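WARN  no MSA supplied for this record, continuing single-sequence
INFO  ligand: pyridoxal-5'-phosphate
INFO  echoing inputs
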Amino acid sequence: MNLSEIKAKGSKSLFQNYGRMDLCFQRGEGAYLYDSEGKRYLDLVAGIAVNSIGHSHPKWVKAISAQAGKLCHVSNLYHIEEQALLGETLARLAPGDLSRSLFVNSGAEANEAALKLAVLHTGRTGVVSALDSFHGRTTASLGATGQEVYRRGFEPLMGDVYSYFPFGDEEALKKAMTRDTAALLLEPVQGESGVRLATESFFRCARDLCDDLGALLVMDEVQTGIGRTGEWFGSTHFNVVPDIMSLAKGLGGGFPIGAILSTDEISASLVPGTHGTTFGGSPLACASASAVLGIIEEEDLVGNSRRRGEELLTGLKAIEHPEIKELRGLGLMIGIEMESLAKPFQAHALEQGVLVNVCHGNVVRLVPPLTLGDEELDQFLNLFTDYLDAKL
Ligand code: PLP
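INFO  complex generated
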């Protein structure tokens, strides 16, 4: 089918809840996607920080094909070998003593599970999160999302348990946290609001406050996790070990899987019957995630993310143009805040066969596959420089 036929069918058969671009991809390979007309695009979006190992990595395709031919789904009524193996790998990679995993299907579900665990473990209900945060679209994760624009029309969400404070503001955080707080939910780097960073001192303060008040620190690593920021987990940059960590996006490399990681002691609060999911941690999803982690380790993609991210930021800093308001980033999670041309640049890049994401108004967000190479990096930098030069 061509694009018009696909659009015509979708306009009748699908909910119209997404503002989709005029594009439909048919296949992907490495950092490239190919549309229905055969045009090639450099993919610096990676399904919004999902395709960590690029598209259709041969080892991953082999691993999931083999697993699909063996066993896809059984149910958590039974023991699942692939889950136990993935749990073991995550325990080895995770910071501190986050040695236990619970598998779910998405980022929102991971945060949902994290908040339920925090409520059960502490016996409290309060959730503190940052303004401009994004934690997902289910009721609890949406409640914790510090952006009114996403909550509008759905309130009240789970009663009056959420409070928000400006990200990075230690004094405001101290005021927001109380002895009713079950969880402080934070992204190590705010992704959806345009790659916003806070200081190590802020995260230290967050950790100390949780310890003093008996609340749990939940780090939402759905976007920052699995090498995205040039460390396995974004929290590592700020020297904090959370009590619970949520993961999704890059973990499955494109196959849906999410997880929460926690300690022996805290995880014990989810006794049988308190939480579960039919699909969570299926043999296929776990085999996919194990293949992703194996490839990331073998190819040192965490190191690649760190090095390429630094090169990209250095290249961007050298541009110096009045359109560039601020450059932010860690590893291959980069935000270019522009004065006004983010959307026009996105349209121009698209024409030139390069996909970038625009979020929070005027921020060009780059979250490419962690496999990004020199050539692809230069392609973007040349495109961006030429575009801005033409605007002088
Ligand atoms: N948490 C963060 C930090 C995210 O960036 C996202 C999605 O963008 C989510 C949670 C929600 O994940 P999902 O869309 O898989 O439910």
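The chain has two domains: 3-53+300-390, 61-298.
INFO  checksum written, moving to next record
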